[in-house]
Amino acid sequence: MMEDLSNYPLELTGDNVPMVRFLKVTKRYGDLVVLDQLDLDVAEGEMVTIIGPSGSGKTTVLRMLMTLETINEGVIYVDGKPLTHMEKNGKLVPADRKYLRKARSQIGMCFQHFNLFPHMTALENCMEGPVQVLGMKKAEARERAEELLELVGMSDKRDQHPSRLSGGQQQRVAIARALAMRPKVMLFDEVTSALDPEVIGEVTNVIRSLVEKHNLTMLMVTHQMGFAKDISDRVCFFFDGKIEEQGAPEDLFGNPQKERTQQFLSAVKEAD
Amino acid sequence: MGFNWNWEFTWEILPKLMHATLNTLMAAGFGYAIAVVLGMVFALAQRTPYWALTKVVREFIEFIRSTPLILQIFFVYYVGPQFGLKLGPWTAGMIAIGLHYSAYLSEVYRGGLDAVPKGQWEACTALNMSTRDTYWRIVIPQAIPPALAGMGNYLVGIFKDTPMLSVIGVAELMHTANAIGSSSYRYLEPYTLVGIIFLAISLPTAALIRVFEDRVRRKLGLK
Ligand SMILES: Nc1ncnc2c1ncn2[C@@H]1O[C@H](COP(=O)(O)OP(=O)(O)O)[C@@H](O)[C@H]1O
Ligand SMILES: [Mg+2]
User: Fold this and answer.
1) What is the residue-averaged pLDDT of chain B?
2) Single pTM value for the model
3) B218: distance to nearest CA of chain A, Å?
4) Tens of pLDDT along A54-77?
5) Which domain holds residue B44?
6) A132 vs B220: CB contact, 8 Å cut-off?
7) Cα dihedral sign for A263, A192, B135, B143?
8) Ligand nearest A113 Cα, by number?
9) Among A133, A200, B166, B202, which residue carries the largest CB count within 10 Å?
10) Inside any domain, residue B51
11) Radius of gyration of chain A (CA)
């Protein structure tokens, strides 16, 4: 049976349209409810960090926004337009492939394990999307890719294949590759979790500079509480498929209200 | 009897056999070219969302793999005409051997395609790439290197199977050696030469394939 979506707006209008809105989004795998009626807004230019125990649904939030997962209920909007659905005869219906290809062009994502294309150099990785998807001229794409590799401090390695790069270097190239598509929203899913401790800083510094110098909207999942506290505009603590608590970093870390948040934060502190 | 090798006879039949070697190489080459392309088509067809197509291809591959090549050759050549498909021995032979090996190659490709990590597909989606670009530019280039060893084995395999084409009269090595034997009543020299020729081509080819495989991996930055 088709879900009744008549209560969901065809598009978001008004003064404060968020860049991203999850509206009562539910995600299930079989009987397992991974996200339960999630409501989450991210404003334009905002950096929102998601923290929470393993299995609480953090990655799933990002994957749904990247359209790597379908959703079971609710609607996700990006820049006021539905992402997971499209309008047909004045009603919202699940987005088809063509619509998805257009809608997801606004989102970029970096993964825990980088997922660079191993048969391409760093530069080629950053040119692939612009040339093949955006139809950019090679010379222009190259120029832009070189700028972005410069931005992430990888200019000198641009002709290397990923197998010749360290984890931190690969992740920086992956960030440049995602930025090359000029997304409005960037997603980072535990981008430092697979890295050796001594190279984590080179990746967090890149993200920090994005926050400071670029007006990107970002949604980041991380286990690095210090980093999250430093650069987030808002932190969401996920527990069991719901946002248990959210707020400005100094409030959430300094004065958590919910017991589960307190427990989680003290457990993380001990582990550090 | 006893071992009596006739050198004069050997030199006399060698040019004929060398000529037949060319036919053998051509048969193997054409048959392999068909198999390489068709095998990929079969492998990709099994990944489409059309379950009927997937099923038909799957069954067809199973069927080919569980029946002898020689039967398939006879079938295309002798039964084909009953369905209005009149083919010369060469064409029939190429189709039969090409189809046969495409079934095996599709399995090799399938393994290679399955081995491409899920993260690569997800990166393609995140970059908003089309399905076509995803396959041609990202997935297939990574699926080929692990498939190269298997592909090489089947190249040698198809070469060694070309003598089966002699049954429908393709003038390759075996057919020529048989003809020499039955007209001269000497079998030792032609068959020995055929064996040597096969060995002299198979062994270096296998070695070359290994070198090639290594170079491809290096070139694609996978090593
Ligand atoms: N493809 C899948 N099939 C079944 N269950 C899944 C799948 N992906 C994730 N899950 C489950 O969904 C829950 C949330 O996963 P995830 O979003 O990855 O959590 P987190 O990133 O917070 O650790 C987990 O219980 C996980 O086992
Ligand atoms: Mg996760």
Assistant:
1) 94
2) 0.90
3) 9
4) 999 999 999 999 999 999 999 999
5) 18-219
6) no
7) negative
8) 2
9) B166
10) yes
11) 19
Cα distance between residue A93 and residue B24, in whole Å: 60
The answer to whether the CB of A72 falls within 8 A of the CB of A28 is: yes
Q: What is the mean pLDDT of chain A?
A: 95
User: Dihedral of CA B213/B32/B161/B193: which sign?
Assistant: negative
Q: Which of A115, A133, A178 sits opposite B122 (nearest CB)?
A: A115
Directed axis angle between helix A167-179 and helix A197-213, to 10°?
Answer: 20
Instruction: Give the separation between CA A47 and CA A211, rounded to whole angstroms.
Output: 7
Contact between residue B182 and residue B191 where contact means Cβ atoms under 8 Å apart = no
Phi-psi region of A3 (alpha: psi -120 to 50; beta: other; left: phi over 0): beta
**Which tokens is B175 given?**
């057919």
Q: Which of A34, A35, A62, A112 to mutate to test the pocket of ligand 1 (most atoms within 8 A of CB)?
A: A34
Q: Which residues does residue A94 pair with via DSSP β-bridges, in sequence order?
A: A85
Instruction: Name the token pair of B190.
Output: 């032609």
Examine residue B4 and state whether it is found in any structural domain, yes or no.
Answer: no
pLDDT score of A231 = 93
The reply to whether B173 falls in a domain is: yes
Q: Tokens 């090996």, residue? A: B101
Amino acid identity of residue B128, one-letter, is N
N- to C-terminal Cα separation, chain A:
48
Residue B9 within any structural domain of the chain: no
A101 touches chain B (CB under 8 A): yes
Q: How many domains does chain B have?
A: 1
Name the amino acid, one letter, at B14. L
User: What is the domain-level CATH number for residue B179?
Assistant: 1.10.3720.10
